[in-house]
Write a structure and sequence with these properties.
There is one protein chain. The protein is α+β, with helices and mostly antiparallel strands. It has three domains: 185 residues, Metalloenzyme, LuxS/M16 peptidase-like (Cytochrome Bc1 Complex, Chain A, domain 1, 2-Layer Sandwich), CATH 3.30.830; 203 residues, 2-Layer Sandwich (Cytochrome Bc1 Complex, Chain A, domain 1), CATH 3.30.830; 231 residues, Lipoprotein localisation LolA/LolB/LppX (outer membrane lipoprotein receptor (LolB), chain A), CATH 2.50.20.10. The protein is 33% helix and 27% strand. The chain is built from 21 helices and 25 strands. It has a 13-stranded antiparallel sheet with strand order 18-17-16-15-14-13-25-24-23-22-21-20-19, sandwiched between helices. It has a six-stranded mixed sheet with strand order 1-2-6-3-5-4, sandwiched between helices.
Length: 753
Amino acid sequence: MKRLIVTVLTASLASACGPKPTPAVVPLLPGDGDANTAKPPVPATGPVADAWTGRTDLIAAPVPKPPAGVELPPIDEFKLANGLQVYVVKSDRLPVVSMQLAVKAGRMHEPRARLGVAELTADMLVKGTKKRDALALAKTIDFVGGTIAADATYEATLVSCSVLARNTRTCLELMPEMVTQPSFPDPELAKVRERHLGTIRQRLDDAGALAAAHVQNLLWGNEHVRGWVDSEQSVAAIKREDLIAWHKSWFVPGNAMLVITGDVDSKKLKGDLERSFGRWAKGPTPPSPTFKEPGLSGSRIRLVDKPGQTQTHVRIAQYGIKHDDPRFFDTLVWNYSLGGGGFSSRLTKVLRVQGGKTYGASSSFDRNLDRGSLVAQTFTRNAEAVATTKMILGEIEKMAQQGPSQDEVSAAIANIAGGYGMRFQSATDVGAALIGAELHGFGKEYLANYPLAVGKVDVASAKRAASEILTPKAFVVVMVGDAKDLEPQLKKEGWRYEKVAFTEPVTPPLVEPAAPVDPKVLAAAHKVIDDALAAKGGKAKLAAIKGFKMVAVGTTPIGPQNAPVETERIFLLPDKMRIDATLSLQQKVKVVIGINGKTGWQMAPDQTTGKIGVNDISAADIQMIDFERWREPELILLKAADPAAKLTPAPDENIDGKPHSVIKLASPFAVDVAIYIDKKTKLVSRMTYSVGGNAEVNDFSDYKPISGVQIAHRRKSSGTGKGGGITDLELKTVEIDPKIDPKVFDKPSAPAK
């Protein structure tokens, strides 16, 4: 219901600000008009002379030098007794030491049921160990002016530590502790999880990120890891036990490599490493998961409807190549000419300079052990979306048929090979590049000879690679924009497409089969519900409630900000509800929602005229309201105590350091509601559920007795979709079984004044 209210309030806010001011009248003098004045003939003009033509005193651009290998600093390599591979890059230019550990465990290794577990595990490595909590870790590294960090990529988890050389022992102490003894504390996990949920929510507001996610899903499908996109539901489902299992499976020394760079003594360092990392116990490594390539014939188009979007983000994708493909460097060159070379590339020249369709366009391809994607991307005005897409497809087809020219190949080689050495400004840069090369089995020679390999590309090899790899007749297209502007264009071209709402999860949530529940465990769950029901006020008292009225004040999200709001909510069982909400921002805006059985109405200012109007609530929103009424917080325990209720015990969790029992209750709407019950007070502290991949969290606190029933007077709700964000309310008055005129639920014939 909160989401429905905020949707109306947002629309009302725009109209509450009043109409736009009309442009000021610009005064004209009587003689300013020339509509009826004879004009002198326009003098003929010839071509403009180029002032620089024929000049011999200009400085010519230097001729690019042939590509040369990169001279790397000495690199020592050895293995510790436990199998950890170590590389040492010595450089005494600065008194700094950096350690980078790569564990071969990234997003490509995640199971679909636990999307996001690699990133959550990485983030939690700096949030506490068996010896130090997050604050102690931060203080230890801050004391020596260093940094520690952890992150997960598609292929690996990276842990780093950097300090002054004299404080090397701090890294030798902290890094093994973080990697081998993480504690994954629940309070910190809750914060990290919420931050990840926030990132997923932000994707809904970022059309570019949304397009990037959808194009991978459309290309690879829901049965391939590259097509999986995490959602609020997948991240919210990850528990501490999942992080522990992931860490135990993949974090073993034989599945990792350590690169140390800077001012170090290699001989002394080996002994230090054996004493610090040597206690990391050996263990088996699971085989990396493999997936069958789905294949692609013809084109597929997905329109992601994002109402109000004035620009359309376009992505065109096809299958790419593996990093070890012998055509890799040829592809590097022809892709630079196509769209990888910035403003000098064909896509930018054609779309920006010649077509005036966009500010810029580009193309890129993945460089991983497995075969990735090749993606062309841009954004443009909605009215130009299809025309722009056709221009990109035309340039791709032209590159496939003709390949790059000699000038394009020469320019690409000069830029790629010439700029390669700039990547190694420090020993740490060398270490990071070395990790990438070793992860793909190339070795340090790959880094030194990279420019030479680029220089061997010629027009013939680049053309051959482009013709073999580019598939102009087998591709996918994603457009993220306003469907009302895009659909007429697509239909005019006769392009078949699928349309999805931008709020829908990119990858459908995976429904895991329910495991059989031990009868003793199930009996214990029923006992938890019975105790909570008794603490709430007792089954008989709750079952006798016929309705209630609650007045609350607080804040609710309206666009990018929170606005003060006051609500009056009336609920008469079984199916009558009314909500009066008054929003205070620039001025007060009132919204009223009435529900009577299977019909409903809403009264609010019209977004265009500002006049108060009354409209029916759609059948889809009524279904959502049915679920809201079913999961009513004051009565949810009655639903759970029903002998026919389907309960599933879940692992205990901590909320603000307090242990809670967690019971999942199946609803008739195919949505499970998780009920968190404080083990000490027996009162409900939280309820969570997921709809359409979006997780909703309702927190309850500050319980007070009202007519013998414990009522939470502080309520906080967070989630996405319509009305996403955080709504924080405090109940001011509560009446149980109030006297209510049934007519208040009827649709008014005219707006109230």
